[in-house]
Amino acid sequence: MNRREAIRNVALLLGTAISASTLSALEGCNPKGPDNYALQAPETKKILAEIAETIIPETSTPGAKAAKVDEFIAMMLNDCYKPEDQKNVLDGLKKVDEASEKQFKKSFVDLSDEQRNTVLTAIDKERVDYNKRDNKKEGDPTHYFQILKELTLTGYFTSEPGATKALRYVPVPGKYEGCIPYKKGDKAWAV
Amino acid sequence: MQLNIRAEKENTYDAIVVGSGISGGWAAKELCEKGLKTLVLERGRNVEHIKDYTTAMKAPWEFPHRLNHTLEQKDNYPIQSQCYAFDEATQQFWVNDKENPYNQIKPFNWLRGYHVGGRSLMWGRQVYRWSDIDFGANGRDGFGVDWPIRYKDVESWYDYVETYIGISGQAEGLPQLPDGKFLKAMEMNCLEKHVAGRIKEQFNDRIMTIGRVAHVTEKHNDRGPCQFRNLCARGCPFTGYFSSNGVTLPAAAKTGNMTLRPDSIVLEVIYDDKKGKATGVKILDSTTMQTVEYYANIIFLNASTIGTASILLNSVSSRFPNGFGNDSEQVGHNLMDHHFGVGAGGEYDGFQDQYYNSGRRPNGIYIPRFRNVNAATKRTDYVRGFGYQGGADRNRGTSFDGIGAAFKDSMSEAGTWSFGIGSWGEHLPYYENKVTLNKDKKDKYGLPTLDIDCSFKENELAMRKDMAASAKEMLEAAGLKNVNTYDEMPPPGHCIHEMGTARMGRDPKTSVLNSWNQVHAAKNVFITDGACMASSACQNPSITYMALTARAVDHAVKELKKGNL
């Protein structure tokens, strides 16, 4: 298995075909650019935290905020994504706010949980439609919400709360058993 | 004068081994255990077993980027970072590409680890014996030169090395893939068992077996057992898999006969015209930048296929103006790798009530070669053959669409089963696929860099079509849905099975080494890394290097005792 295949397997684990820009980021491809300070701004972290928590809310297990997914997304965008992808996501955050203002006359962070869910459900549908569009061309930007969602899932499920509470993490399994019973609702293995 | 004599005496050993990787470690162990004072030279830093596996016990969240590549890594490791085993946890075992340049005349991924243990730390650990179909291939179809050995010459040495290191696998009785000395086989999961059954039912010429892998599935020589963490390339604190660091070098050290010298870049083999043989090697100490000469009766070159070729080409004397042992002009030529990165994958609807335990099996399944193994399986579009590796997994989640609590729950549960196989194919030996010195471009030590000029040709490309088509055919026959083929055509080198730059053969005019891995024209120099290979077969080659090394050391010591070296 080569790297690309390995990454595709990760993509499969995430339950999706992975986007070109995330694939490119995971493989890396450009020299490290300067730090993007817009990613570190408190208002950026704040909206990232709320978006991530809306995608992966606290339930009987911790949510994205408890796993510090906002910090993870900001760092990953800075260290692993090209400047144009960073800009794409930062512009996307503005679009989230615009959608919130349009529908609820408030910025996204000031919405209720239910309102946030409404806004992002619509944006996720927009993402699905964009991914299914007919006139796809090489070099088209990835939908910003695709990147945000991928990073939220990676950041959450590889975090200590995500891996050990939402999933089952066994550091030293000791043996491999190929066929064991599974019931719907049983947690998946973290790694 | 007396000082020189004393220095010479201090720097004299019975044997020198250049390289501490998978074959060098075996040379060291065997030479030391046979009582020879042995100097092991390694160009990179020391890596002590367990102590230096600094990332081995870390959890995913202890890595800031969760093992994803950063732009900075990609900048410093543009080649190495393409390897599946390169990540935030293993970066320390790969060379910095910027500091270790080479010249790609055609695209070639040279994946390297410069440290004690070499790539035995990060290897894929798959172990498949060669058969006479492989050792006889060149002689049969005329590509390359006939191997001077056959399976019967190596069989007992396969037994010997496998018994020592511990190989997990299942005996299948196939002529094209001889069984080994196996420890308990690892288990297949439900979908793999299902696919194996369907392949057996529907194809009378092929089977699917569990991978044969250098893991100890039971306690073996005080090692292991394997803990099924699948973090192997970080180094294993349980010594669950074979590495030089964990197995052969400690055995060599235990004899008291080994001197291990890291940070020692071998510049050349010293040839003494009067004695008519090699007398030692000259090294550059990379920490002091001093050159030092070491002497011995026996020299083993195990610097890796391309590294060994580089040393030979750099070793120029009046006897060997074109490089050591290069009367045949074959040194550096016939470079091979396996061609891979082609196969198919699909999904399976069933087994929703089945999963596997928390174990992360460091191994997959294997479909042994089934083309050109007998008259009935003869192809007209290409010679030689290929095998498949792969496996099944149950993915997490079923759909990426949606947000919120229900989406989170779905992503936290086991989802669809998927099954994939990728193929490893034989690369023919072509004279024009070669490594040469580039004296105009020097590295940071002032040494010539290497030009690597290697490609896959018509035979490989024709084979790849079958590799993809047969994969799809089998997966569909096994009842998988949404079966898709892929062919990523990675450049040569990417499979990390480079071989052939100092090939064995019967005739000194057309080969570099004889049937005992001795340089034809300097019989006290042995080459038992991948350089010695006259063809590439399609099996992962490391176990064959190990067997040939143990065999060559046995011969070397017998010859030494007879006074023939």
SSE diagram, text form:
The complex is a heterodimer of chains A (191) and B (565).
Chain A: H1 3-13, H2 20-27, H3 37-40, H4 42-55, H5 69-80, H6 83-104, H7 113-131, H8 144-157, H9 160-166, E1 180-181
Helix pairs in contact in A: 4-5, 4-7, 5-8, 6-7, 6-8
Chain B: H1 2-10, E1 12-18, H2 22-33, E2 38-41, H3 71-76, E3 103-104, H4 132-135, H5 137-141, H6 151-165, E4 167-168, E5 182-183, H7 190-202, E6 209-210, H8 244-254, E7 258-261, E8 264-272, E9 277-285, E10 291-301, H9 305-314, E11 339-348, E12 354-355, E13 365-367, E14 386-396, H10 405-411, E15 414-425, E16 434-442, E17 448-453, H11 458-477, E18 481-487, E19 518-519, E20 522-527, H12 542-562
Parallel strand pairs in B: 1-2, 1-10, 2-7, 3-17, 4-5, 10-20
Antiparallel strand pairs in B: 6-13, 8-9, 9-10, 11-15, 11-18, 13-14, 14-15, 16-17, 19-20
Helix pairs in contact in B: 2-8, 2-12, 6-12
Structural commentary:
The complex is a heterodimer of chains A (191) and B (565). Chain A has one domain. Chain A starts with a helix and ends in a 10-residue tail after the last strand. With 191 residues, chain A is mostly helical. In chain A, helix 4 crosses helix 5 (69-80), helix 4 packs across helix 7 (113-131) and helix 6 packs across helix 8. Chain A has helices at residues 3-13, 20-27, 37-40, 42-55, 69-80, 83-104, 113-131, 144-157, 160-166, and one strand at residues 180-181. Chain A is built from 9 helices and 1 strand. Chain B folds into 2 domains: 13-166 and 243-336 and 498-565, FAD/NAD(P)-binding domain; 187-241 and 339-425 and 456-491, no CATH class. Chain B contains 12 helices and 20 strands. In chain B, strand 8 (264-272) and strand 9 form a beta hairpin. Chain B is of the alpha/beta class and 565 residues long. Chain B has helices spanning 2-10, 22-33, 71-76, 132-135, 137-141, 151-165, 190-202, 244-254, 305-314, 405-411, 458-477, 542-562, and strands spanning 12-18, 38-41, 103-104, 167-168, 182-183, 209-210, 258-261, 264-272, 277-285, 291-301, 339-348, 354-355, 365-367, 386-396, 414-425, 434-442, 448-453, 481-487, 518-519, 522-527. Chains A and B meet through helix 1, helix 2, helix 5, helix 7 and helix 8 of A and helix 3, helix 7, strand 12, strand 14 and helix 10 of B.
